[in-house]
Design a protein that fits this description.
The complex is a heterodimer of chains A (about 290) and B (about 300). With about 290 residues, chain A is mainly alpha-helical. Chain A has eleven helices and two strands. Chain A has a single domain, classed as ABC transporter involved in vitamin B12 uptake, BtuC. Chain B has 15 helices and two strands. With about 300 residues, chain B is an all-alpha fold. Helices cover about 80% and strands about 0% of the residues of chain B. In chain B, helix 4 packs parallel to helix 6 and helix 4 crosses helix 12. Classes of the chains: A mainly alpha (about 290), B mainly alpha (about 300). The interface between A and B is large, with 42 and 39 residues.
Chain lengths: ~290, ~300
């Protein structure tokens, strides 16, 4: 019994990272209506940024977020100006198509670049408190992953407030709902796109940092994280960042439960089956508007 | 309008089949295996791209789980063929299973629209890949007697035949009432339904045709490769390749995927030979440049040039 509880707990902890990874993608998909299949590669880049920030400056890995998130925001701005800004000029159907194409190209290039620069080895950030656990009854909670979950939740909460209160946050939400109406009310839609894409990339950087702290980063983690993020985005539905986070937690727990029931190799399969069932029963997602 | 479209496509079909006719002489003229292997790869890619084009280009549904059907075709054909079934029967069985599976999941998957259909099918493909990877982790190698009698030219002619079949199938579809209905769905599903087009039935027909061809292509892959991991044909890169080639060439046209496949394979091979270490990086960058510079693919770019010249 306690083994099962322990597994579910670990699932919940990684689920927070699924939620964070998905939040950035959800923002980009919801606002720009583009499918950024290179999102996992952006997470991977964030992971390497954190690794080198910690290695060079000797910062605490969680403090490195203060460097990695701004860098990722800048990367997002550059990618928007260089690539995705051209995609959003097209109508919605062409957008999805062209963003898929550019995303695949970008994923391929970033993966190859990462292998060249940093080799294909797995890396992870070692902290002095990396091995410590908190014991609650028979459960043991790894401190690093617990803090990661808290950080992820804080970031999602911050994003939620940002979208609800900030002037440009409201502009972003208006653009997501109906860009033509937003344009008519005088909102600079292009600016809203840029901000949403930059924030999405910043969140990917944060997710990458937490992945590298709690787990490990290698150039090939991109596709896996893109897939997880896509699943959570659709599972949760668009329009609510908190909903996306909860969707991530649900996927993490569902994977852990299925791993316990059918054995480790099938954890992804059951998660994906749940996803397809939800998609068919509720095409707008669990929390979709 | 319809007659014109049909004639245009018939001309392209004739040109492509003429080129295939010349390629039939290639094994006689050139006795180099490397050349035959590259042309084989192009022909396999043409089949895969055209098969993807049926659902994406004509019925307008971006299927990101295409590799699942390629993989199923490969799995079934390989198992039967190694077990002693004649290759033609094995190929047909592979295609039949792929189509059957497509119809089973199609009813559910077509409840999803647009980008959601794309993500849903991507997930379906991954479910199958992970399962196969776990269930069949051992590499599949041909038995020694088969390797001893292996002839590349047999594979080459089979690839040529399948590529011709896929081009003929799309040409027939493009000129038919069925294809017209599919295009109506692509342009506006509600409007098509309102004018009496059974959208689900047509989308399922498109999917069946598409996955049948993909299953055949998978069988060809299984017949060609001496050893590979059974999960390899299920890898999403087969889907991405088909998508990229179709979009580079021109989606929803007969000749677009053929031109796209030729350019894509040649470019990839050239870059791989020229810049060994950096080839994926350069290929990815080139590829992004093509998408940004030619947003409608080669076919649309050619049309624009033609219009400029005429003016």
């Amino acid at each position: 019994m306690s083994v099962l509880a322990q597994q579910l707990l670990l699932g919940l902890l990684i689920g927070g990272l699924y939620g964070l990874a998905a939040a950035g993608l959800s923002l980009v998909f919801g606002v720009l209506k583009v499918l950024d299949v290179a999102h996992g590669e952006l997470i991977m880049l964030g992971g390497y940024m954190a690794f080198f920030v910690v290695a060079v400056f000797g910062l605490d890995p969680f403090v490195s977020l203060l460097v990695v998130i701004p860098l990722s925001l800048l990367l997002g701005v550059a990618l928007y100006w260089g690539l995705f800004g051209f995609v959003v000029r097209a109508d919605e159907e062409t957008r999805v198509k062209n963003s898929l194409l550019i995303g695949f190209g970008l994923a391929l290039a970033l993966h190859a670049l990462a292998v060249r620069l940093w080799t294909a080895d797995e890396r992870s950030i070692i902290t002095p408190y990396g091995g410590s656990v908190i014991s609650v009854g028979e459960l043991s909670i790894p401190v690093v992953r617990l803090v990661s979950l808290a950080v992820a939740f804080a970031l999602i909460g911050g994003l939620h407030l940002l979208l609800a209160r900030w002037r440009w946050g409201k502009a972003i939400r208006a653009t997501a709902e109906d860009w033509q109406a937003a344009l008519l009310t005088g909102i600079d839609v292009r600016r809203a796109y840029l901000l949403a894409f930059a924030i999405g990339t910043g969140l990917a950087g944060a997710a990458g940092t937490l992945v590298t702290i709690g787990y490990s980063v290698s150039p090939s983690i991109g596709l896996e994280w893109t897939l997880k993020a896509l699943i959570v985005v659709v599972l949760a539905g668009l329009g609510s960042m908190i909903g996306t986070f909860v969707g991530g937690l649900l996927l993490g727990v569902a994977e852990a439960a299925s791993a316990a029931a059918f054995g480790g190799p099938y954890r992804e399969v059951v998660g994906l089956v749940i996803f397809v069932v939800v998609l068919v029963v509720r095409p707008r997602g669990l929390f979709g508007r | 309008m319809r007659g014109l479209a049909g004639r245009h496509e018939r001309r392209w079909a004739a040109a492509i089949l003429g080129a295939f006719g010349l390629l039939a002489l290639l094994p006689v003229a050139v006795r180099r295996d490397d050349v035959l292997n590259v042309v084989f790869l192009i022909l396999l890619s043409i089949t895969l791209a055209e098969s993807w084009n049926i659902v994406a280009g004509y019925a307008g549904q971006v299927n990101l789980g295409h590799a699942a059907f390629f993989g199923l075709g490969a799995l079934v054909a390989r198992t039967l063929w190694i077990g002693g079934t004649p290759i033609a029967v094995a190929l047909a069985a592979g295609a039949a299973i792929a189509t059957l599976f497509a119809l089973l999941i199609g009813v559910a998957a077509f409840r999803l629209r647009g980008a959601y259909f794309a993500i849903g099918t991507l997930a379906l493909g991954e479910i199958l890949r992970t399962t196969i990877n776990n269930a069949l982790p051992e590499i599949s190698t041909l038995p020694a007697p088969t390797i001893a009698t292996y002839r590349l030219t047999h594979r080459y002619y089979l690839a040529l035949a399948l590529a011709a079949v896929s081009v003929l199938a799309v040409a027939a579809l493009a000129g038919s009432r069925l294809g017209l209905g599919m295009r109506a769905i692509r342009e506006d599903e509600e409007a098509a339904e309102a004018s009496g087009v059974g959208a689900l039935r047509l989308k399922l027909t498109a999917l069946a045709l598409s996955t049948g061809l993909a299953g055949l292509a998978g069988g060809l892959f299984a017949f060609y490769h001496i050893s590979y991991y059974p999960s390899h044909p299920f890898s999403p890169h087969w889907t991405f390749d088909a998508l990229l080639m179709t979009f580079i060439g021109g989606v929803g046209t007969l000749h677009g995927p053929v031109l796209g496949a030729v350019l894509y394979v040649m470019l990839k091979e050239y870059v791989a030979l020229r810049w060994v270490d950096f080839h994926l990086l350069i290929f990815g960058a080139l590829f992004i440049a093509i998408v940004l510079l030619l947003p409608g693919g080669l076919v649309q770019a050619a049309e624009r040039v033609r219009r400029l010249v005429r003016r």
